[in-house]
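Worked Example 4.2. Consider the chain below.
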Amino acid sequence: MQLDFDSWMRKVDSILSRHIGLSSDDIRDRDWYSAYADGIEPADAIGVLVGDVTDPESVMEEELCG
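Applying the procedure from the previous section yields the following structure tokens:
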């Protein structure tokens, strides 16, 4: 069963919060809905749209300097 978009985003925010301490509302805008519509899992969408959240320093550098 596919998640609705709001549930999918809650998973995205949970992953982001756990790894970098921020939610999707706290970082630059991304096209989350397209990733959702394409059937991409939340963790994979984060990897494509944000980067490797297991390396928070690189993510934050991209957010600040991107």
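Helices lie at 5-20, 32-37, 42-49, 56-65. The radius of gyration is 11 Å. Compare this with Example 4.1 before moving on.
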